[in-house]
Amino acid sequence: xxxxxxxxxxxxxxxxxxxxxxxxxxxxxxxxxxxxxxxxxxxxxxxxxxxxxxxxxxxxxxxxxxxxxxxxxxxxxxxxxxxxxxxxxxxxxxxxxxxxxxxxxxxxxxxxxxxxxxxxxxxxxxxxxxxxxxxxxxxxxxxx
Length: 144
Description:
Elements: H1 3-14, H2 19-31, H3 33-51, H4 62-81, H5 94-111, H6 117-123, E1 128-133, E2 138-143
Helix pairs in contact: 1-2, 1-3, 2-3
């Protein structure tokens, strides 16, 4: 028996097989004894599972549960309406301190950033010597 045939027998036993495929599965069950045995076992397992399925009984009525739900909703709404304003936390100032420290750090970096060499030369009396080697393709500048 192929896997497709096994799946069709399982679907037939569960009552989930399409109407156009039922005739083919019924012919297979009548002609193949192992398929018929599999179908009987699956049908027996289904009946056994259905007959031993636990059923729950609730002692209280539906209205009782709904009244509890409505009571809880009303209590939550009244608690939300009567909520006192939140007190400030002792660490609430950290909320402002951390960004302020970040801005201060950026400002310090901008102020104390080393100036480029060209700005140093332009602002002071410096001498420069240049050596160029065409054979090596190198230029060296000595700034004093």
